[in-house]
């Protein structure tokens, strides 16, 4: 099953929680806001997917979501 990371940069406040939770996927851009550095598609059930789910839960701005399909 695949999942797609959806980032709403309009909501991001640059708290950096996502970068700590899943550094393989998220980074801070020059503007301090979230930037996806990995693939936006991820295989669910992997350590990376778990990190992304953790980031989604931690984000104080609710700027992240994981859309699972399949
Ligand atoms: S945790 Fe949320 S608010 Fe913080 S940098 Fe990531 S997306 Fe932005």
From TrEMBL:
Residues 3-31 form the 4Fe-4S ferredoxin-type domain. The lineage of its organism: Bacteria, Bacillati, Actinomycetota, Actinomycetes, Streptosporangiales. It comes from the Bacteria. It comes from Streptosporangium jomthongense. Gene3D superfamilies: 3.30.70.20. Its cofactor is [3Fe-4S] cluster. Keywords: 3Fe-4S, Electron transport, Iron, Iron-sulfur, Metal-binding, Transport. Ferredoxins are iron-sulfur proteins that transfer electrons in a wide variety of metabolic reactions. PANTHER family: FERREDOXIN. This is Ferredoxin. The keyword Cell cycle does not apply.
